[in-house]
Design the sequence.
C-alpha cells in the first residue's frame, strides 16, 4: 500500500471513528444528565464530581473532536489560522486536566467519607461548589499556560499536538501525571481502609447486616471509580509516553502523524465511554439509565402503534 493510500485510509478511519465517538458521547452524557436531575437519590457529592467529569467529556466532543476532524481532513494545512490552532490544542489540554482532576477529587472525596465519616457529614460535604470551581480553575489555567507555550514554539501550520521537551515535560507532569499519581495513592488507601472496616465490623459489631452493607457499598463504589482510573491510565499513558519521547526527539519521530493520531483517539474513546462505565457499574445510575431507555422505547412503540392505527382508520374510511 502506497503512502498516499495509507494516509487516506488512516484519515478516513479516524474521521469515522471520531464522528461515532461524538454521537456516543453526546447521547450518553445527556442520559447521565437526565438521570441525575430526574432522580433525587443520585444527587450525592460523588455524583456531582462525576457530573463534572461528564461535562468535560461532552465539551471535548462538542469543541475539540470536530476540530480534530478538520485537522485530519486538511492535514498538513489548517484553514482557521494559528490562533484557533493554539486554542484547539490548549482546549484539549484543559479538558484532559479537568477529567483527571475530577477523578482525583472523587477519590479524595471517597477517602474522606470512609476515613472521617463524622467530619465528612458535618463539614466537608458543604464544600462541593468550591471543589468544582477549583478543578475548573486549574483546568483553565493549564489551558491558558499551554496556549502561550504553543504560540511561542509552533509554526503556523497546525500540526500534531506536541511541544519542545523543556515545556512538554512540565506540562505533562503537572497537568496529568501528578493528579494521576494522587489518584493511585488515594484509591489504594480506600481499599485498605474498606478492608479494615469490613474485618472490624464482622468481628465486633452487633448490627452486622446493616454495617456490613455500608462497608460493602463503599468498597463497590471504590472499585467502580478505580476502573475509571484504570481506563484513564490505559488511554492517557500512551499519550504521555509518546509526547514525552516526541519532545525529546524535537518532534522528528518517524510516522509521528500516525502515532500521534492513535494516542489522541484513545483519549477521545476514554471520554466517550466514561458515562457507560460509571453509569452501568453504579447500581442506582444503572437503574435510572435503564428506566430512561425503557421510557423512550415505550414512547416510540406507542408512536408507531398510533401511526399504524391512523393508517388503518384512513384505509377503512
Sequence:
Amino acid at each position: 500500500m502506497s503512502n498516499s493510500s495509507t494516509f487516506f485510509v488512516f484519515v478516513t478511519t479516524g474521521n469515522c471513528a471520531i464522528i461515532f465517538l461524538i454521537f456516543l458521547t453526546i447521547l450518553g452524557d445527556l442520559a447521565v444528565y437526565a438521570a441525575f436531575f430526574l432522580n433525587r437519590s443520585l444527587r450525592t457529592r460523588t455524583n456531582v464530581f462525576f457530573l463534572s467529569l461528564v461535562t468535560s467529556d461532552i465539551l471535548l466532543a462538542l469543541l475539540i473532536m470536530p476540530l480534530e476532524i478538520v485537522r485530519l481532513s486538511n492535514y498538513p494545512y489548517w484553514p482557521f489560522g494559528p490562533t484557533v490552532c493554539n486554542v484547539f490544542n490548549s482546549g484539549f489540554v484543559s479538558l484532559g486536566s479537568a477529567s483527571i482532576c475530577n477523578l482525583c477529587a472523587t477519590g479524595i472525596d471517597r477517602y474522606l467519607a470512609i476515613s472521617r465519616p463524622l467530619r465528612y457529614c458535618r463539614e466537608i460535604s458543604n464544600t462541593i461548589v468550591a471543589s468544582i470551581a477549583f478543578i475548573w480553575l486549574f483546568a483553565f489555567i493549564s489551558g491558558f499556560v499551554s496556549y502561550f507555550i504553543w504560540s511561542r514554539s509552533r509554526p503556523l501550520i497546525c500540526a500534531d499536538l506536541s511541544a519542545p521537551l523543556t515545556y512538554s515535560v512540565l506540562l505533562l507532569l503537572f497537568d496529568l501525571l501528578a493528579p494521576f499519581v494522587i489518584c493511585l495513592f488515594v484509591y489504594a488507601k480506600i481499599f485498605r481502609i474498606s478492608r479494615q472496616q469490613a474485618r472490624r465490623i464482622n468481628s465486633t459489631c452487633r448490627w452486622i447486616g446493616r454495617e456490613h452493607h455500608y462497608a460493602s457499598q463503599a468498597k463497590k463504589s471504590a472499585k467502580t471509580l478505580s476502573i475509571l482510573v484504570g481506563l484513564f491510565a490505559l488511554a492517557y499513558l500512551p499519550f504521555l509516553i509518546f509526547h514525552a519521547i516526541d519532545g525529546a526527539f524535537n518532534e522528528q519521530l518517524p510516522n509521528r502523524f500516525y502515532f500521534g493520531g492513535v494516542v489522541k483517539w484513545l483519549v477521545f474513546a476514554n471520554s466517550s465511554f466514561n458515562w457507560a462505565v460509571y453509569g452501568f457499574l453504579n447500581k442506582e445510575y444503572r437503574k435510572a439509565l435503564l428506566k430512561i431507555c425503557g421510557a423512550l422505547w415505550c414512547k416510540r412503540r406507542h408512536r408507531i402503534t398510533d401511526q399504524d392505527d391512523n393508517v388503518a382508520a384512513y384505509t377503512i374510511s
In short: The radius of gyration is 23 Å.
